[in-house]
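Hey, I was hoping to borrow your eyes for a little while. I've dropped the whole record in just underneath, so have a look:

——
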Amino acid sequence: MLKYLQIMAKNLTLAIPLAMLAGLAFGLTPVAGSLKVLILPLTFLMVYPMMVTLRLGSLLEKGDAKAQVLAQVINFMIIPFVAFGLGQVFFAGKPYYAMGLLLAALLPTSGMTISWTGFAGGNLGAAVKMTVLGLILGSLATPFFVQWLMGASVPVDLRSVFSQILYIVFLPMLAGQLTRSYLLKKHGKPAFQKEWAPRFPPFSTLGVIGIVFVAMALKSQQLLAHPMELLNLLPPLLALYGINFVLSTVAARLFLSRGDAIALVYGTVMRNLSIALALSMNAFGSAGSEAALVVALAYVIQVQSAAWYVKYTDRLFGKAAADAPALAAVAEQSAR
């Protein structure tokens, strides 16, 4: 089973659309509504595995301060407002679609940040630190941003959003860190990195696919009644990622060395879509499936754009160091 999950994880651009189509078809059956009971277990399956491979101790490491500050400025002082503006333009009268776009923008960095930074020969240590810091800051800031920016058009129960963040992020983080500590103590660091850490991320992918399937099934009848609605979600997502890539690339080239520059780009453009997806489905009732559709489509754009950006990295930032393949190998172990 693990082998098939790993294949699925490496082919998200195909797996996500297939899950969406399957959910669309299943949504026509009389039992589609019963899928709601799967949301919480799928959420845990999606978030917990990525927490096992997260190294919180990286926050204590020194260096790359300029890159870290720039990343958080872009992540929390610029991109959320870009997403909010795009939502108002493209999703006027459809606040939950705008909410999905905002949630994707509010939760920066994932294991993909580490992976793609490694593939491009960037500063892997800076990427790990951005991932941990972005996850913690994003989780704490999201309820306030949602209340501030979307509270006028979407009913936002701040206490409910905070409780969902607790269940979706911090409890799995605690469980994941306890698991990590136990495995490191029992098997040692080399065995953990080589044998155990790679086993967890594919299960996170299974949770992602499951949540996408459920979100599509719950919205199936509405989408089939208005088939162009799904295509209308793409332009604002393409605009958000396009603006993010351009802004981060310009800032990286102006202020940072090659390694830190690459980490900055992937530390700001790669969003933690798993948590955004979980929050969409858990914090806003049945209407949250609309927000989840936007996040699900963001997966396709994010993975594809990251792969293309690697191809142009040398043109933008110069040639990679000779040890880039080693960095990529480490990145594979830290994926998701």
Residues 323-336 have pLDDT under 50 and may be disordered.
